[in-house]
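<instruction>
Derive structure tokens from the sequence
<data>
Labelled lines for chain and fold:
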Amino acid sequence: MKLFEYEAKDIFLGYGIAVPEGNIANNSNEAEAIAREINRPVVLKSQILVSGRGKGGGIIFADSITESEKEASKLIGTLIKGIIVDRLLVEEKLDIAEQYYASVIIDRKAKKYVILASTSGGVDIEEIAKISPEKIVRYWVHPADGFSKQAAESMLSQFSNLSHDDITKFASIIHTLYKVTMDYDAELVEINPLVKTASGKFIAADARIIVDDNAIFRHPEFSSRDMVRSDDTPLEAEARKQGISYVDLSGDIGIIGNGAGLVMATLDLVNYFGGKPANFLDVGGGAKPEVIKKGLKLVMSKPEVKGVLVNCLGGITRCGIVAQGIIEALQEACEKKPIIVRMIGTDEKEGIQLLNEAGVPVYPTLEEAAEEILKRT
């Protein structure tokens, strides 16, 4: 789950990391009032959950109160990368002397967290890595070992252009970012840029936090948040609301299975026989008829889908339950499309009998089922 910039900054502030003076505005009048309170040049920042908003025109500087109101009225309601801007973070324009980069992110290959720091902030870290790799330092941390301020200072001492005082301040912030990461079960915590002002103060000019979806239950403060992501397709957004594991693909053969590995194998086989999967949908283990029904109706609602292949391996999931869900979906679906089922395992005979009575073809092997769905589409 991605947090908005203002949410991440509120968290940082609570941990003692300085952020620019500012507030959230839902309209141009509120933006003007905030600018008046700050009483110096401001920056208007669109609060949308996509990267690259600055390049898309989502960040605007204003030198006066009047200009703040004018620019805010233009920005609110506009589309940036397909997202409607409905609120702005209005904050002071910083007197920038230097820009740095700091983040904590999961390195899944190493099975550790990796802490990144750079003396070139304000641009994509990938660009820094390509152009000036010597300006990036990395430090891998196992959660069981922890990360100390001394370790942060040690990694930053590799930068020859940082003074001892800057290293101390920078290290304190990096150490705090790691604590935020642990406390919030975050996949990513980032400041880019971390600004050093002309007065020598370090301020988080921007902030990003991505919380692991699997850990949301440990953070009741986010329980009311909409789990839909900004990059979801309409069907993915609907599936997320319904608690269904669904990913849109570009083909025309709907795919449903119970278990991620089984669904992936089904996708591969359909592709092997020359078909193009339209989606990935995993109903999970022990799914109830309601889940099967919702999943099948969702897949059939996609205009591009010409037919659906259901692959059920009965274990915890009973074949009879899957069959019941398929039949209920067919009874309620607005548009009927060919459905082919491969079913084997717990309550296999019951499931096959129910589907046969409903006129749904069932095949004993996945190969036969995959070939049949392609014939019918």
Summary: The first strand starts at residue 22 and ends at 25. The two ends are 37 Å apart (CA to CA). The longest helix spans residues 164-183. The chain has twelve helices and 18 strands.
